[in-house]
Amino acid sequence: MAGGFVAIYRWRVAPEHERAFRDVWAEVTQAARAQGGYGSCLGRTPDGTFVAVAPWQDRQAREQAFAAIGEGPQWPPVERLEPIEIEVEQDLWVASPFTKSA
To answer: For residue 27, which phi and psi values (nearest 5 degrees)?
Structure first.
């Protein structure tokens, strides 16, 4: 199925800020869900970079959600890397947020 949008966010976080980072990430993710987002999955690469994968209905839905959230909570000191933005062309996820059940 074509359609949908995925944002891949990346951060480098000093060990002493990891707990605060995880808390703020969860808070922002819940706020985005309240604005129609599909949620997010947080992981870590072998080099320690945090990575969050967040599916959205489309790019506009993400922009509207973050506009509604505004500044949100204060992030701890982190290095925020450029996000990777993906327009979905083919969707084969088992439980995709982009596929509507009949």
So the answer is: -65, -45
